[in-house]
Amino acid sequence: MDNQKEGRDPGGQWFGGLFGLLDLPFIEVLTRWPVFLVRFERLRILQMLHSARGPALTMIWTNLFWIVPILVFNQYAQVYAIELGLRLEQVGYLSSVTMCFSVVFYLVGGWLTDRLGSLRCVLLFDTLSWPLPMAILAAADAPWHFYLAAALAGTMTGVVPGWHALFVSRIPPDKRASAYGLLAIVSNLPGLLAPLAGGWMVGTFGMELGMRLTYLAAAWLMLAGCALRWALIPPIPPSQKQLTDAFDALIEQFSIYFRTALRADLRWFFLAVVLINLDLAITGVFLPIYFMKHLGLPEKDYSLVTTVACVVRLVGMAALVPLIRAGNIKRFLLGTAACWAVGTAVLLALLRAPRPPAAVAALLPQLSAGWGEHYLLGMILLVSTIWAVGGALWGPAIMAQWMNVIPEDIRSRLWGAHGAVGQLLAAGALAAVPHLYKPWPPSLIVVELFLESGALLFFWLSLRGGLRPPEDPPQGS
């Protein structure tokens, strides 16, 4: 036997490699784990790619025509409105207008989808709710322009039932979590560069001109996305069932919704989802204002926060989404709420510590010397990273849970009623939060922690019972 090939010298001693230990089996495994990880992740991502076929794949890549511009402008949308003269309360009212219109179109979205077919409904509301508001915001110079754009943007919820009907139309139930995971990964990929592009636009052209140019480009891109979907996606014909009139349909929607949401095995789950939706609505509107206007984070640095969060979400989804199964989805939802609550608690703690802890100051005096300069950005990056881990789990898990729990024949109607209730609650919250924020801005973080802790509790309570599909509506309703 060749001793050199065995990694030994003639005297029988180990040599070479990592202090002579590289050839030991467990050391070899440890040193090669990145290769194993990359191969394992490649296999899981290929599984996600194979799960999305037909209309789902087209919906995923055409979604980039919306996602890219949204990631560019969304981080500065509220600050842009304030720069053009709107007050903080008016920013809250704008969001409430959007939510109120969203309620209406959540309710009629399922009804219209049954009558027009999924593709027609998607094209109608995609055009009405995105390119038109973007064009208005690009030229806005008065408050009523913002209110008109907010009202049109609220019609976006009319697309929800038809969009998801198209997406899952050729995907078996056991593949849906992977398909939604692929959608989430592709939707987050532009986050590696798009937020930085927004920061560059604002830094180069200023807030007003940079945002006007961004909104104008967004309008054209979203219009092109609508045209591509019209050309590439085969339509799903309208429902062949005998359809009720609009008023009877609304009564039926809410009857199904409340009968489902109040069931003993589902009520905690529905309560948790409502609290999470409130949390997302409030923080999405007011956190950028809090970070940039109250804490003083430079506008160009906020794009770095958004980019880091997107990177963390991408890594988290690639690693964790393939592990989601029908039997463990609720545990992933519990993990989402836990990450968000922990991140917010860390933010509250750091806001009370303008200087590093004594132990850190003693061990790292150079860090302490520059603490004031970098503390704010580092604090927000840390908290955003924790939140992003939860965000990596939320989208794929909640969408798969909805699709698996709710039967297809009542899905669009139950979804519409649930969305209407959530949007109506969010509209009231967005109108009320500025009145808490203005006298004491940290109240925003306290409200956030309260909502996330409540969702964590309710998701934990929902683990005690299994989720069963809701009962079918009575015949003839």
Provide a descriptive summary of the structure in words.
The chain has 477 residues and is mostly helical. The protein has a single domain, classed as Up-down Bundle (Growth Hormone, Chain: A). 75% of the residues lie in helices and 0% in strands. It has 23 helices and no strands. α3 (33-51) packs across α12 (176-188), α11 (160-167) packs across α22 (408-437) and α16 packs antiparallel against α23. The longest helix is centred in the C-terminal third of the chain and has 35 residues, at 371-405. The radius of gyration is 25 Å and the shape is globular. The termini are far apart.
Helix content: over 70%
Text of the CATH class: Mainly Alpha
- Characterize the main sheet: none
Distance between the termini: 82 Å
> What CATH architecture would you give?
Up-down Bundle
The shape is: globular
Domain count: 1
- What portion of residues belong to β-strands? under 5%
User: Runs with pLDDT <50, length 5+?
Assistant: 1-43, 466-477
Indicate the CATH topology.
Growth Hormone, Chain: A
Please provide the ordered H/E string of secondary-structure elements. HHHHHHHHHHHHHHHHHHHHHHH
Give average pLDDT, whole number.
79
**Rg calc:** 25 Å
User: What is the structural class?
Assistant: mainly alpha
Number of strands: 0
CATH homologous superfamily - what is it? MFS general substrate transporter like domains
How many helices does DSSP assign? 23
